[in-house]
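Quick one: co-fold with nicotinamide-adenine-dinucleotide.
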Amino acid sequence: MSIQKLAVIGAGTMGNGIAQVCALAGINVTLIDISDEALAKGLSALTANLDRQLRKETITAAEKQGALARISLSTDYAALNGAELVIEAATENLELKKRILKRIDDTVSDDCVIATNTSSLSITELAAVVNHPARFIGLHFFNPVPMMALLEVIRGLQTSDTTHALALKLADHIGKSAVTARNSPGFVVNRILCPMINEAIFVLQEGLANAKDIDTGMQLGCNHPIGPLALADLIGLDTMLAIMESFHDGFNDPKYRPAQLLKEMVAAGYLGRKSGRGFHVYT
Ligand code: NAD
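Sure, here it is.
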């Protein structure tokens, strides 16, 4: 793999997982967030994940130490200097992502590839923010990043074949299987998955069954490894809401309207696992 230095913007659920898999694959990673607290939280989640892998003997103690040594933390975008690839994995908000991409673009060299881990926003629209948009691409990792085998690679209208080839090479290097999708709200996997989760929330809202039974029904009846409401809690209900809103806006089709209960849960601060309470309670 030719990439030696990579940066990840956002040390949250996805950002710290992306940093972990890339560092384990031998790449030097700079992890950037807005505060020292956010970085400390990200590093602690990442370290706990490495410890879990160590206990399961999927990595050695030396590999864990090596990965940690390759990760540096910063709240300063100047730390992007010299990066060959930057992966934006900050909060799912179009205006915020555009501001972040502008800052990345102002800092990195013209040949640095810029990627976003957005779940639902337009790769073409985000690419338009940067100079040389041919070097922009969607790299959609799945949660939890160290466990999930897929990397969905999304080409915007401007993405070059060279950028696409580099994304496929990265996927291979970090042990992920890539599928390529054309730009469209939710791409392929979330286009199918998120309306199903939203429907499960409608089912709960209508009182057809309780959360536990809805999840058990889909696990045992459809052989899903995790129920849709537990999966929503894992994704984060704020992220789920942002995804459904961007489908609703992007397709202008009422079939994608977010369930009222999802909006209420987010308004109440019940964001799923990350806040300790969502459709289920986490201690
Ligand atoms: P999160 O809320 O866990 O983390 C977001 C992080 O971004 C926070 O640490 C926040 O402090 C940071 N951030 C906000 N503004 C920033 C800025 N200006 N500069 C640097 N960092 C900033 O969110 P997440 O679940 O990790 O989602 C991140 C991205 O990944 C979103 O685009 C989301 O749609 C996408 N995604 C999420 C999942 C999932 O299951 N959660 C799966 C695939 C893709």
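If it helps, Residues 36-55 form the longest helix (20 residues).
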